[in-house]
Every structure is written in C-alpha cells, then in structure tokens.
C-alpha cells in the first residue's frame, strides 16, 4: 500500500509527459504574398489644399525672385522707344533691336495657344484591357492573379509557401518569378514584410499539422517588362477595383500598407 501511494504520483507525471509529447499543436503554413504596384505615370489632379499651396509658392517665388533677362530687355526696349519719340536725345537706330522683347512674347503666346496636351487615355483604356499596365495613367495599379486556395480559386496577390532555408524576401522573389516569369522587372523596397494576413483552411483541406496560413506581404514597384502568364489571367487593378474584387478582410489588410488616393 505504501509503495503504491509513493509510485502513483510518479506514474501520473510520466503519463502527463508522454501525452504532451504525443500531442502536437496545430501548425500554420508560412506564405509570402507580393504586392507589385505600378505608380502613376501622369501627375494626378491637385486637391483644394494642394492648389492653395501651389498658389502660395508661386506668390512667394514672384515676390522674392529677381528680374529675368526677358524682363530687363523689355524695360530697355521701353526706354529706347521713349528716347526715339523725344528729340532731346540722340539715339543710334542701328543699335536699337529690330525685334523687341514684346514681339518675342507675342510670338510665344501665339505658339502656346496652338499647343494641345496629349490624351492620357491609352489603347488599353479604350479596350478595357486590365491585363496591360499601360492604363489609368493617373492612378496606382496593383497586380493580382487567380490563386488556388483549397478547392476555390480567388483573385488575390501572387503568393506561395515559404521553403526551408529561404528568407521571406527570397520566397517573395521566387514566387514572383514562378508566377510572372523573368521578364517582369520590379524593385523590392524592403527586406522586411509590409503587411500581414492569416486565414484558416476549410475543414476538408486541413491536415494533421496545418490548419491555416499566415501571409506576409512584400511590396515592390513595377519597373518594366511584361507578365509571362496570360493563361493565368493577371490583371492590373485600381484601388476601387481591388475593393470590388478582393475578399473584404483580405482587402482591408492590403489597403493598410498602400498609399491612399485622395481623388
């Protein structure tokens, strides 16, 4: 009896240790997503605050600036014209410029009136081609692609699983090359992720050691080249198009590290 009382706590402790060793905690897959963004090619319209600030800078520049060569020449032309009208001063007519600053200004004004800005509407805009980054030149565009998540296919940022031995940035570079090919040129802005999102797999897709994915986003600027994967149906989307197409929670995580457009 005494022996049983002494050994019983030891047996319970051993069973507890064994049970902890046999049961493993559910694991999360480490995923790296890549946000490739094409910056605006044409300057977006100024908002009210920017317009007022522009006018202020222009006023300060005019007040503090020195006279230009054209303004000085224009003043000298006026003085010479007044001297020509009066008979009290001898003026060398050959020294007087035949083409005055006012004549040059009138010619420049006429040329400016005939100038027309080129259209910012591209062929991709006219055709509604979202696979071409040469569209919506005044807006930011983000590259998205259909990605298989379990049995579903969702349009999200290109992503892939982290492999042992890689850094997260190396995974991002590999994933982007696997999805888009080597022709697409981008510039990653950081060695660290800029965003995070996690989701659980459907019950049918869960395994003994994996119940979901933790996604670490990397941000890169589009530099040039084309996406080699037309069969994957890649699209370049604006901020509003992203909100309509991406899953709500996923879109919220993405919008947190993107610059907000004010127009």
TrEMBL record:
GO terms for molecular function: structural constituent of ribosome. It is found in: Mitochondrion. Its main location: mitochondrion. The keyword Phosphoprotein does not apply. CDD domains: NUDIX_MRP_L46. InterPro entries: NUDIX_hydrolase-like_dom_sf, NUDIX_hydrolase_dom, Ribosomal_mL46, Ribosomal_mL46_N, Ribosomal_mL46_NUDIX. Residues 28-129 form the Large ribosomal subunit protein mL46 N-terminal domain. Keywords: Mitochondrion, Ribonucleoprotein, Ribosomal protein, Transit peptide. Belongs to the mitochondrion-specific ribosomal protein mL46 family. GO terms for cellular component: mitochondrial inner membrane; mitochondrial large ribosomal subunit. Residues 155-254 form the Nudix hydrolase domain. This is Large ribosomal subunit protein mL46.
């Amino acid at each position: 009896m005494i022996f049983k009382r002494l050994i019983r706590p030891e047996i319970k402790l051993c069973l507890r240790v064994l049970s902890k060793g046999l049961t493993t905690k559910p694991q999360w897959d480490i995923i790296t997503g890549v946000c490739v963004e094409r910056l605006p090619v044409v300057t977006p319209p100024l908002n009210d605050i920017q317009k007022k600030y522009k006018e202020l800078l222009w006023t300060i520049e005019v007040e503090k600036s020195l006279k230009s060569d054209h303004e000085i020449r224009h003043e000298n032309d006026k003085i010479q014209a007044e001297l020509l009208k009066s008979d009290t001063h001898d003026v060398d007519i050959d020294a007087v410029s035949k083409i005055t600053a006012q004549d040059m200004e009138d010619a420049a004004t006429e040329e400016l009136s005939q100038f027309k800005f080129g259209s910012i509407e591209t062929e991709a805009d006219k055709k509604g081609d979202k696979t071409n980054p040469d569209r919506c030149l005044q807006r930011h565009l983000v590259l998205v692609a259909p990605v298989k998540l379990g049995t579903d296919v969702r349009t999200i940022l290109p992503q892939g699983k982290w492999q042992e031995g890689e850094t997260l940035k190396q995974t991002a570079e590999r994933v982007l090359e696997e999805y888009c090919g080597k022709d697409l040129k981008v510039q990653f802005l950081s060695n660290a992720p800029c965003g995070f999102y996690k989701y659980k797999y459907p019950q049918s897709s869960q395994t003994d050691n994996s119940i979901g994915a933790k996604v670490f986003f990397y941000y890169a600027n589009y530099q040039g080249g084309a996406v080699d994967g037309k069969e994957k149906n890649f699209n370049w989307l604006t901020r509003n198009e992203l909100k309509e197409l991406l899953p709500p929670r996923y879109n919220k995580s993405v919008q947190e590290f993107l610059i907000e457009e004010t127009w």
